[in-house]
Amino acid sequence: MPRTAPSDSWGHSTIRTACPLDCPDACTLDVTVENGRVLKIDGGDANPATRHFICAKVRRFGERVYGDDRLLFPAVRQGSKGLGTFARVSWPEAMDLIARRMTEIRDEFGAQAILPFSYGGSNGLLTQDTNDAELFRRFGTSRLARTVCAAPTGAANLALYGKMAGVAYADYPHARLIILWGVNPAASGIHLVPFVNDARAAGAKIVVIDPRRTSLAKQAFLHLQVHPGTDLPVALALHRVLFEEGHADQAFLDTHTTGADRLRAAAAPWTIERAAREAGIDAADLRQLADLYVSTSPALVRCGWGLERNRNGGNAAAAVLALAAVAGKFGVRGGGYSMSNSLAFGLRAASWIDTPEPATRLVNMNHLGRALLEYANPPIKMLFVYNCNPVATMPDQNRVLEGLQRDDLFTVVFEQVFTDTARYADLVLPATTFLEHYDIAKSYGPISLQLVRPVIEPRGEARSNAEVFSELADRLGIGAAEEDYETLMRVAGRMPPAIGSELLEHGVASPPHGGTPVQFVDVFPLTPDRKVNLFPEAIASAAPRGMYGYQEDPATNQFPLALISPATEKTISSTLGELRERAAMLHIHPADAARRGISQSDPVRVFNALGELQCPANLTADIRQGTVAFSKGVWRRNTYNGSTSNALVPDSLTDLGAGACFNDARVEVALLGRH
Ligand SMILES: Nc1nc2c(c(=O)[nH]1)N[C@H]1C(S)=C(S)[C@@H](COP(=O)(O)OP(=O)(O)OC[C@H]3O[C@@H](n4cnc5c(=O)[nH]c(N)nc54)[C@H](O)[C@@H]3O)O[C@H]1N2
Ligand SMILES: Nc1nc2c(c(=O)[nH]1)N[C@H]1C(S)=C(S)[C@@H](COP(=O)(O)OP(=O)(O)OC[C@H]3O[C@@H](n4cnc5c(=O)[nH]c(N)nc54)[C@H](O)[C@@H]3O)O[C@H]1N2
Ligand code: SF4
Ligand SMILES: [Mo]
Predict the structure, then answer these.
(1) Ligand 1 pocket: which of 179, 188, 286 to mutate (most atoms <8 Å of CB)?
(2) Which terminus, N or C, of the chain has the lesser number of Cβ atoms within 10 Å?
(3) Start-to-end Cα distance in the chain
């Protein structure tokens, strides 16, 4: 298989690949290359959900590959941490330095003083949990709990259904009712939108549950503009209607579930009126949703990630996912739920990682600042960041920055571009992008698995994760160096033969059930007893109020506003943030702004006890009063003072799954310059 394709007489060639970025869609891409340079990126159709169109972000990905912020050589820090000045070194020098520091730190403090730090949302099956895992496991470093995203929804989905595959995009037009719950596909998974529109055109009612009046909310039949963090009472009120008003599907509950009685008891206190009061919505609207859900089939709940990012997030997701079981909405095309389809192919990295996971210290990634500043026995002496930009994306930004400035910490940042985190590195290593290496893209919205191929040679001295981690293992005497192509062959060889060989031969594997499974017809819960566990209390052991227990809003008189940070169409998390030209804005309701003497585009300070963010204000009635929004993934240079919303986010953890509480930031806003 050639690394790049032959070209025509104009020097052009079009190469098929796929997008591995952290977006549910995993588009098929057709990349036109001219004399070895990316000219154009378009959508293909091997993943049918792509329908030949892609987002504006990835159309611009060439600007990232060739942009000024691209890292081209390994380099070591010159001057103080964070200053951003570096001197070029060779790859052998860089690798020697890392191997030496790893060995020294292990000898003095133990290998657990080393913390590998990656999330890998924008990585396929080759660029994470392959050679990196072998290296760090064999060396015995601390382990990382990858909880920044999808930990609460994942814990709920796993406990209730064993992550059973959900309703496919293509089946949305079969639904008569679609509830978009804490999800904004117009920004975060655009290929779902045409299917929602098709459903609406065919007469389906669309309901949106979101503190913001998103574009889909504006076109919806009903919009419940809930206060952030109150989805749990709303969902429990729907359960109460189902159970107490005789709409629960008793036959389904008896055959396919356990724990229904305990869920019923948990829902009992949540009348429509009480839940509506807690969520700050009209009781009549919630009643209307209950009536619609009871009376409509096929009915579909698309559960997103917006509802998980708060202290009640895991229980909220569990209560939302449980609705289809209690109401008996499964068994028909277009009925049931959609959550993450990441396990639909049944592929797990455990099949190709040979080294068992050691029982070393497990560090929750949401506690990065705390870990760097407080953890002892041993303290963290080396941080190896890859596939992640924690300065921009983790909670409690000021403490993360303080930790990264420790003189006795050795930080390696292996990156494509000079991110906010790379600026704090002792050593930066240049990484290839998905246009320069092999990977395997697995979607989590549609059900697809595609080969990601290099379409151009790596820029500068950029190298792939597979190569760098295997070479490091080689230097440390605990593994053998490998090209990313060899890693591809090894991983594909460990997949079920039909999947692996099809992937290598055709660049795409056939999805199970044609990619459109019907729940409880084609797919069933993957829980140990094959039943829906409606009251999985074991996962709530750390929840202060147990399974389905609600925690009050953290607002205070001093910090009364809820700050949320939803996905924006401009970036994927912080990826591509380097292309953002203007200051990001705080979105605030005109009434909240007026009360504070704030007008359109005024500079404001957004603050709480943890930090302060300075930026221009955007007045919009599309956000509910009492809530303000600032996009996730903004880089420090796109605010006035170098703090982003994460400077205001506490590092508290969600009720289930120990996830991040990004939307539990409570703040005050004032005109900049006025105290
Ligand atoms: N363009 C783009 N696409 C992306 C991403 C990106 O950064 N940019 N990120 C990717 C990743 S990593 C993920 S996890 C997904 C996330 O995609 P989504 O599931 O869409 O998640 P969010 O954007 O966090 O939030 C979705 C919506 O929930 C609302 N919301 C906030 N708090 C609450 C709440 O308490 N209750 C309810 N009901 N709604 C609430 C927000 O206003 C927002 O409109 O998107 C992926 N796709
Ligand atoms: N305030 C707030 N913050 C949030 C959220 C929120 O809702 N609000 N959402 C959170 C969510 S949902 C998520 S998923 C996280 C994501 O947070 P992160 O995991 O930090 O994701 P990115 O910001 O996309 O950064 C990924 C980095 O990996 C690099 N990278 C990509 N591929 C490779 C590779 O092959 N090799 C190497 N070495 N590097 C590579 C990219 O260049 C990029 O800089 O952010 C979270 N942060
Ligand atoms: S980011 Fe999403 S919409 Fe954009 S090309 Fe990638 S998979 Fe498609
Ligand atoms: Mo995410």
Answers:
(1) 188
(2) C
(3) 64
Rounded to the nearest angstrom, the distance between the alpha carbon of 404 and the centre of ligand 2 is 17
Determine the Cα–Cα distance for residues 595 and 310; give it in Å rounded to an integer: 27
> Domain extents for the chain?
75-145+348-427+459-487, 152-342+518-540, 561-671
Taking a C-beta distance cutoff of 8 angstroms, is the pair 167, 530 a contact? Answer: no
Q: Give the helix/strand (H/E) hosting 30.
A: strand 28-34
pLDDT in tens, 247-296: 999 999 999 999 999 999 999 999 999 999 999 999 999 999 999 999 99
> Does residue 383 line the site of ligand 3, with CB under 6 A?
no
| 0.85 exceeded by pTM | yes
- Indicate if ligand 1 lies below 6 Å from the C-beta of 280: no
The secondary structure of 329-355 as a DSSP string is --SSTT-EEE---TTTT---GGGT--S
Q: Which atom of ligand 2 is nearest to the CA of 128?
A: 35
Is any atom of ligand 3 closer than 6 Å to the C-beta of 58?
A: yes
Which superfamily, per CATH, for 152-342+518-540?
A: Dimethylsulfoxide Reductase, domain 2 (3.40.228.10)
Query: CATH assignment of 75-145+348-427+459-487?
Result: 3.40.50.740
Give the three-class secondary structure for 161: helix
Let me know how long the chain is: 675
User: Do 10 and 23 touch, CB atoms closer than 8 A?
Assistant: no
Does residue 211's CB lie within 6 angstroms of at least one atom of ligand 1? Answer: yes
E strand residue ranges, 257-312? 257-258, 299-303
CATH of domain 561-671: 2.40.40.20
Give the mutation target among 123, 310, 387 for probing the ligand 2 site: most ligand atoms within 8 A of CB.
387
Q: What is the largest CA-CA distance in the chain?
A: 73
pLDDT tens-place string over residues 77-134: 999 999 999 999 999 999 999 999 999 999 999 999 999 999 999 999 999 999 999 9
Could you tell me the two tokens for 485?
Answer: 């192509």
